[in-house]
């Protein structure tokens, strides 16, 4: 499951660049508003993963 979330995070970064975390946070907010706590937690985790990936040093 963690790998699935990481794959989603990487996909969002590839697609949206610097806006990826904002997209994930908006998605989390949508699920929170609809009281879907399972999906809300998943998208919160994806947002954290995006933040952590963005902070990794670049190779090269």
Could you explain the architecture of this structure?
The protein is an all-alpha fold. 78% of the residues lie in helices and 0% in strands. α1 packs across α2, α1 packs across α3 and α2 packs antiparallel against α3. The longest helix has 18 residues. The protein starts with a helix and ends in a 6-residue tail after the last helix.
The assembly state of the depicted protein chains is single chain
Please tell me how large the radius of gyration is: 12 Å
Work out the helix count: 3
Q: Count up the domains.
A: 1
Mean pLDDT: 92
Give helix % range: over 70%
**Would you tell me the structural class of the helices and strands?**
mainly alpha
Number of strands: 0
Query: In sequence order, what are the helices and strands, one letter per element?
Result: HHH
How far apart are the first and last residues' alpha carbons, in Å?
30 Å
Summarize the main sheet: none
The coarse overall form would be globular
Return residue spans where pLDDT drops below 50 for at least 5 consecutive residues.
none
Strand content: under 5%
